[in-house]
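Appendix B. Chain record.
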Amino acid sequence: MSNALDNIFASDPELAERAERAEANARPDLAGVFRNYEADPDGGFPIPQHQWMVTTALPATAEAVAELLGGTPYERETEAEDAMAVKTDADRVEVVIDGPEAVRLDFKQWVNGKLAHHCDTRTFLSPPEDVGAPCRCPGTIAELKSRATAERGPKPSIEIDFTLPHALELGRFRYKSSGWSLIPELPVLKGTLAKSGGPSLAYLINERVQYTSKKTGRDVDYQKATVKVIKPYGDAITDTPAAAIEEEPPF
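Structure tokens predicted for this chain:
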């Protein structure tokens, strides 16, 4: 804003409130996306991000994320709506997850930019005329991964929705992944969230995994998202002492 606009909005609370409501109404349904990989501008393999990268459609959201998590907002070279981005200084972020329904997994295969296969590994989820029909996908992760690698089957589509407890006004964010490493953890995560009986405070962790394959001797280096539930969010906001929700019995 110019100095004159700054002055007017600072001295006219009603005008400032109306502008704030207008901005809120103009916000997209999804405030932003947390990413641990960035698309290669030359079309190569995605570039790993050791700290969280957040993309958003709104400059104001990018600025708020940068203030909260570090980094500097910039504009990406993309035709996507979330053209603003922040490469944050954080590899671990506190988030609030409403419940197990905020964690979703299905399988998708895209061909020439179009969704060619969408299923739950048993039946089709789209298009409408195919919903419920058998998709004939294999039943194990190893077989699914093998077919996906050969471009003969769908890849995972994982989505986890959450808000930021220190900036709830920004709205709902999402972590999205087509990776395989998080799938084995999802049943425990959903069960832990269900035990909370409501929203849960959790850590969204961007973990770097490095090792040498015993079978091939190849160095493996990739980013893996992990979610660690801390406790019910109600306990967090009232500062009620509470142990972290147990994911496994302590015996």
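Further analysis of this model is presented in Appendix C.
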